[in-house]
Design brief:
Blueprint lengths: L2 H24 L12 H4 L2 H6 L8 E6 L7 E4 L5 E4 L3 E4 L5 H15 L6 E7 L4 E6 L5 E4 L4 E2 H7 L7 E12 L2 E7 L1 H6 L6 E2 L4 E6 L5 H5 L5 E5 L4
Parallel strand pairs: 6-12, 10-13
Antiparallel strand pairs: 1-2, 1-5, 3-4, 6-7, 8-11, 9-10, 9-12
Length: 233
């Protein structure tokens, strides 16, 4: 085979191989879905599935049915503990409300009450916070109150401002000890063509400005990309 035709054949074969491999390379660029949970939640999938994790400085209303002396409002201290009558110090941080209710009931059942009915409410959230920044009406740090989605988080900041691009919203999160980002399209979420992702404590949400080069494109070489969450075509 002449050298010229051999070179053309090699180029053609390389091009065909690149096309064949493209789907495999693009598999990591997901088209709709959730980011993985951040590291602290990922280590405890049971608590991740059941809701808000109590943290330091949260305020709790503890009620023991028909035992008014044990009913009171307590604050989780900096060490993650609460102090209750008859029980003393009890670890609360990192637990869900049902888990803490079970722990309080178990402690009372050991020595004092046969079948205690314990109900706990979080009257003030202080530890689980997110940051909403960029082109929003009220950027700032917000406390999570139960399960929160991206749409709800943007609503906390009173929505995108006049220059905000709702098709370019970035969530930054630490996953497997690595800071990662994912790009979301809020208009697709509202239209129902894209899943509304859950937001976790310490997430940073940035709404980009219209007509400005995407910051996501600039940081892709520095911060790994979890996925491009766009509606399916």
């Amino acid at each position: 085979m002449p050298r010229k035709f051999a070179l053309v054949a090699m180029i053609g074969a390389a091009a065909m191989l690149a096309v064949a491999c493209a789907p495999a390379r693009m598999a990591g660029l997901q088209t709709g879905g959730q980011m993985a949970p951040p590291d602290p939640v990922r280590m405890d999938p049971v608590t991740a599935a059941t809701g808000y994790l109590i943290g330091p400085m949260d305020q709790l209303d503890v009620n023991v049915f028909q035992v008014p002396d044990l009913t009171r409002t307590v604050q989780v201290d900096a060490a993650g503990q609460i102090i209750l009558p008859l029980i003393g110090p009890l670890n609360a941080a990192g637990k869900t409300v049902p888990q803490l209710q079970a722990d309080v009931a178990a402690a009372l059942r050991q020595k004092y009450l046969q079948s205690p009915e314990v109900t706990i409410y979080i009257s003030q959230y202080a530890s689980q916070r997110i940051t909403v920044d960029g082109a929003v009406t009220s950027p700032g740090v917000y406390a999570l109150q139960g399960r929160t989605t991206l749409l709800q988080a943007i609503a906390m900041a009173k929505g995108a401002d006049k220059v905000g691009d709702e098709r370019r919203i970035i969530i930054y999160r630490t996953i497997n000890n690595q800071k990662m980002g994912a790009l979301y399209d809020l208009t697709a979420i509202r239209a129902g063509t894209l899943e509304d992702p859950e937001i976790y404590a310490r997430d940073v949400i940035v709404v980009e400005r219209s007509g400005v080069k995407s910051a996501f494109q600039e940081i892709r070489g520095v911060i790994p990309m979890f996925g491009l969450f766009r509606p399916l075509l």
